[in-house]
Specification:
Blueprint lengths: L1 H19 L7 E5 L5 H9 L4 E4 L2 H7 L8 E4 L8 H4 L3 E7 L2 H13 L4 E8 L9 E2 L3 H9 L4 E7 L12 H16 L5 E7 L6 H6 L4 E4 L1 H4 L6
Parallel strand pairs: 1-2, 1-9, 2-3, 3-4, 4-5, 5-6, 5-7, 7-8
The protein binds pyridoxal-5'-phosphate.
Length: about 230
């Protein structure tokens, strides 16, 4: 089932790219495997997935040694500073940086391990109280502050759009964050690129791609509904 779902999602990515006149190679599909057993990740791996997204430090720690070493692990959930040290050498990209203090800890831990860490800045694009992420208005100043830290590189923006039944309702937010990334790029801040836009989930990834997403994070559409028991 995972294999068929993946094929379907790849087809949809292709369709959305065609509609937007984009090359599907510009879009990375992140298979969001949170709460799912290793056996299902293995199925996705066998079907070609190499990018996996998790939102809990503990799950990355548990799954990492059980799966192939060419997997790129994406930390997409809220990250506590005291847990950075456990995943710093296991993740390819941290999507959820929304404070200077968290960035400082990532910089610090990366330095200790003599590695360079790529991060995205999470923006709370719709200003929802329930969500993490930096407010839209504060994004540029946070990026300027983080950009001077060693061993850490801002390579783009991430957002979690509101939960909606009609994905068209999120188009305005995807467009707004894309415009923000263009504005930031034009500032030519040292050590900051805006090559990644991580946006779009099972319900709205096609719209996100039409609006410029370069990474989409799909869980339910690949692995089925999550049961949090
Ligand atoms: C769970 C999660 C996803 C995937 O959600 P689906 O609706 O199952 O595709 C994407 N991004 C983040 C940050 C998540 O926590």
């Amino acid at each position: 089932m995972v294999k068929e779902n993946l094929e379907k999602v790849h087809e949809n990515i292709k369709k959305a790219c065609e509609k937007a006149g984009r090359d599907p190679k510009e879009v990375t599909l992140i298979s969001v495997s949170k709460t799912k057993p290793v056996s299902m990740l293995e199925e996705a791996y066998a079907a070609g997935s190499r990018d996996f997204g998790e939102n809990k430090v503990q799950e990355i720690i548990d799954k990492y040694p059980q799966l192939a070493s060419d997997i790129r692990w994406h930390m997409i959930g809220h990250l506590q500073r005291n847990k950075v040290k456990y995943i710093i050498d296991k993740t390819a990209l941290i999507h959820s940086v929304d404070s200077l203090r968290l960035a400082q800890e990532i910089s610090n831990q990366a330095g200790k391990r003599q590695l360079e860490m790529d991060i995205l800045i999470e923006v709370n694009i719709a200003g929802e109280e329930s969500k993490f992420g930096i407010p839209y208005e504060e994004t540029v100043s946070l990026i300027e502050e983080i950009s001077v830290l060693p061993h850490i590189h801002i390579i783009g923006l991430m957002t979690i759009a509101p939960f909606v039944t009609n994905p068209e309702d999120n188009r305005k937010y995807f467009r707004k964050i894309r415009e923000l990334s263009v504005d930031i790029k034009q500032k030519n801040i040292d050590n900051v690129t805006m090559s990644v836009l991580s946006m779009g989930m099972t319900g709205d990834y096609m719209v996100a791609i039409e609006e410029g997403a370069t990474m989409v994070r799909v869980g339910t559409g690949i692995f089925g509904e999550r049961n949090y028991g």
